[in-house]
Amino acid sequence: MATPPVKVYGPPLSTAVSRVLVCLLEKDVPFQLVPVNMAKMEHKKPDYVKMQPFGQVPAFQDDDITLFESRAICRYLAEKYPNKGTAGLFGTNPLVKASIDQWLEAESQSFNPPSSVLTFQLFFAPLMKLKQDEALIKQNEAKLEKVLDVYENRLGSSRYLAGDEFTLADLSHLPNTQFLVEKTDKAELFTSRKNVGRWWSEISTRPAWKKVVEMQNA
Amino acid sequence: MVVKVYGPAYASPKRVLLCLVEKEIDFETVPVDLIAGENLTPDYLQLQPFGSLPVIQDGDYTLFESRAIIRYYAEKYKTQGTDLLGKTLEDQGLVNQWLEVEAHNYHPPLLNLVLHIMFSPHFGIVRNEQVINESEEKLVKVLDVYEDRLSKSKYLAGDFFSLADLSHIPFTSYLVGPVGKEYMIKERKHVSAWWDDISSRPSWLKVLEICK
Question: ipTM of the assembly?
């Protein structure tokens, strides 16, 4: 089989890398995952920084472009392959697309900051033998609770965040939530909220995400 | 029926106003006073459940998050006014990439500077010099990458002004103005030229005029 033209650079354990991997799998787009050893600072070396000038993961390449920023990569894939794999990821008309984009931005601006801090403090810091910051954990847990209250309300009248179908907006939440629910003691933030709990069990059991989790645990 | 944009006095809604002016789309503005907590009334939260600005109403359609709003109008009116998305799927990919960079790398430290220097003691912010210094250091690193990028490319996504550049204008205007850190822009030759270019666009001058 010919080598797929799509390359993703970065470790599958990185939340941003896994966001791109799940999108590629949902879209049925074959890809090569190129490892980047962050412990050895490979993401700060000149060859990598040429692709991603901020020295962050992931980076993405296909025949036509080199791109970075996981949500930009997901949007590009959804636009380039609208009819492949899960078709409704970015909607089939401009109004639906904008509503999906709205919730993708909500994930990016409201959900991601506190959930990233908690994921780092509660999962990655112990792994890296770094000291945890209790005040930061408390502060960000409070912020995340407020966001999840909004989601609880929204998901009471909508099966997924943007409507009746699973979209990029839901997909974007998978990486951080997976760590918080499965690898920290903060699962009940999600599971104690009826609608959020229901939504989480639906989106996290999709085959594409289960495959990414396997890649993370490999 | 004309698009209504909530919160014109503040920076995030100005991203939307800029886009609408560039795209030659008519709009009305609806004031929202954050200091008086008008963003936390039940009526407002019905429109924007996180209590943030902006939100737009376009007939029956409501949309929040400024970057989602500008993408929507830039695409809906692609052939009208300034093309803010680029010609190809790849151009658009680069626009979205730099828009994400603005959202995740540029905006957070700049927002800290704005909140601590301009808005404290409002919104529960107690001015913290350590936060200010660390945020400035982070922003310096980002601007160094921008300096390199803009030495090879006239605008962030390529040789065309796009949503990616536009998104920077309102908060950068705070940075060079009331935040008092114009030197961060001026000290960098290409960033400075880019800022002079984008901040002198008629659309920005019009937005400033409307929001006086």
Answer: 0.96
Residue A41 zone, left/alpha/beta (φ > 0; ψ -120 to 50; rest): left
User: Contact B108/A106, CB-based, under 8 Å?
Assistant: no
Per residue in B16-62, pLDDT (tens digit) is 999 999 999 999 999 999 999 999 999 999 999 999 999 999 999 99
Whole-number Å distance between alpha carbons of B165 and B200: 13
CA A93 from chain center: how many Å? 24
Of B68, B93, B108, the CB nearest to A65: B93
pTM: 0.97
A44–chain B Cβ distance below 8 A for any pair: no
> In terms of domains, do B128 and B62 share one?
no
Q: Is A46 on the interface with B (CB under 8 A)?
A: no
Confidence at A51, pLDDT banded by 50, 70, 90? very high
Contact A101 B101 (CB under 8 A): no
User: Which structural domains are found in chain A, ordered by start?
Assistant: 6-81 (3.40.30.10), 94-210 (1.20.1050.10)
